[in-house]
Amino acid sequence: MLITSVLRCSKVMDKTLIELVGHQTQLIVELGEYAEIVHWGKKVSGAHAGFRQALLRPVPYGRLDNDVAMTLHPELGRGVFSSPALEGHRNGQDWAPVFTIIDVEHYLNGIVIKSEDNNAGLCLKTELFIDRHDVVKTRHTLTNTKVGIYQINRFANTLPLPERANEIMTYYGRWVNEFQTVRAPLAHGGYQQENRRGRTSHEHYPALVAGSKSFGEMSGDIWGFHFAWSGNHRLRVDVKADGRRYMQAEVIYLPGEESLEKGKSISTPWLYATHSFEGLNGMSHHFHSHIREYILPRSFKEKPRPIHLNTWEGIYFDHDPEYIMSMATQSAKMGVERFIIDDGWFKGRNGDKAGLGDWFLCESKYPAGLKLVVDHVNQLGMEFGLWFEPEMINKDSDLFRAHPDWLLAVEGYEQPTGRNQYVIDLQNNDAFNYLFERLDYFLSSYNIAYIKWDMNREVVQPAHLGHAAGHNQTLRYYDLVDKIRLRHPSVEIESCAAGGGRIDFEVLKRTHRFWTSDNNDALERQTIQRGMSYFFPPEVMGCHIGASLCHSTRRRHNIEFRGLTALYGHMGIELDPVKEDQKERQGFERYINLHKKLRPLLHSGRTWRVPTDDDSHQIHAVVATDQSEAIVIISQLTMPTHSLSGCLRIPGLDEQAKYRVSVLDHPSNYDDIVNYQPPWTKLGCELSGEWCKEVGLAMPILDAESAMLIRFERLN
Ligand code: GLA
């Protein structure tokens, strides 16, 4: 084995130990014939030889005679009775490959391991990196080096978990109810989730957290995982019969979908992971910092995120350019910075039953063209954005009438529609090129700064020329976005899939914002946004103020609760501003101004999900990276459990510094005569960061479904 450019590595017995170091955590990887992570946790100084000696396992009676390592690439042939990393065969042969390391490249922050199995004619490359925010990423690449096609059934990323990881937090959800979390003990049987919906999905968000018993927001040992893939996947956390445990993530390949000719390779998606010994908040800090530094497209980092007005819930399919321009005029008066025309602008699109695929301006709705509207929006000082759903087709469209064979379908079978539509086969080059040409046409012909890229149905028959092709369909979607981004690098993209159905790290590499949910109900949004905040920073979370009567739940909320709920992320308005009364418009203006003032802090600071004394409220804080200020949103979700709600304690401030505490926004009925509110909420007060963290401030009394905004400013 050759090890190049070694940072810190040592020989222990006949093996080599390599240390990969983040900010607070480390990985110690043992390399011999195979690679095993022997420690992934808090950084510990000292000699490797001692560590290794300490971790040598006993060999229990009644099992294989030797110790069996839980490797980065579990193989049955080495006696690892876990879910194997690779399942495949060459016409029934070469089905049990055992790889041996032949070369390791060692970089400052990672290793690239090359292994081979000459009998099976396969080569494996394993990449493992850790960054300065403690985020680990890993993937494998398999190459067929022998004559004859190698058929791949499964190909997974595997990371070990220590035995003290005995509880998990996983996600579930649905349309208008994304990012719901559930906790469960991690015991025999482990946990498995399968997503077969053809997109990241609302139902099976590809991430989970494993940790020590009762891990919480502020405490506990945590290992968080995010699988960066926007199609079918399987996630598994397994408890082996001997008590060891591991996490595994893979693409679900459909039958016969992936096979390699000699010389060809296939890679798994990246699995991202992090260890935090400071609970879930610590985990989120790692992922948020990683996203900000490495995932978000570079060129947009400095630009403040413009406040949106999206037309969807305001006018739906009812497009009249004169009226839309009056909406734009009203939006600009309220301080909106980007105006987006949603669905309904193209040929044949008068409802959700027809038109998808015909990406030509609807001339009967826009007889004077689109430029008039775009210019109007630009003259008002706003950017212009437009909605597309490129991957989709209605049977009632010119495109389908001309190219019925462009459907992603298994020939000879009917398939159910989703929102009356079908998916286009992106592996068909003519279809792919047509979509690129149409998007390119609009982006080249008009001053479009932004597109909302939607994907409103699930994929049930992903076939190309009769062969299963779900994996490739997702890769071609990435290709299409990449090609557009290359041609129009200054255009920003929002990823939407009936709300939050395609939210993952791989999409974020090529887009700028997610439409979090079609649910604009402020109360429901509290839970949805909280769930998303575990892995994503606020600036990529699209949060809109909707109409007071929420369209998805028919619940009514006042402007203060809607405003403060949308304030937290990348803010927008989604209604018809022309129809709103003066009082509501003043409300929008108020929260737009607040957001503009606070967004530099919101979009760069550290997010804290603040523990509360009473579950009836939810508290969210963002603390500046230099700890000079913080803002806190207290949201009262239901009636307080008791007449007094305990104390508000804020973590993350400079404990030695003094802060001025003041209320920036509260419900309009806050000063009514029913309750006497804590004096600090009227007069403000000055407190040390340490007091704020350890003791706190008396909580105010808030009605259910209301919120309050508090500011902390450092005085010294
Ligand atoms: C999806 C999106 C909505 C809107 C509609 C338009 O449902 O999530 O925001 O764009 O499509 O048809």
From TrEMBL:
Highest taxon in the source lineage: Bacteria
InterPro entries registered for this protein in UniProt: Aldolase_TIM (IPR013785), Alpga-gal_N_sf (IPR038417), Alpha-glycosidase_related (IPR050985), GH (IPR017853), Glyco_hydro_27/36_CS (IPR000111), Glyco_hydro_36 (IPR002252), Glyco_hydro_36_N (IPR031704), Glyco_hydro_b (IPR013780)
Reaction(s) the record says it catalyses: Hydrolysis of terminal, non-reducing alpha-D-galactose residues in alpha-D-galactosides, including galactose oligosaccharides, galactomannans and galactolipids
Residue ranges of every copy of the Glycosyl hydrolase family 36 N-terminal domain listed in the record: 35-248
Coiled coil: none
One Pfam assignment: Melibiase
Name of the protein in question: Alpha-galactosidase
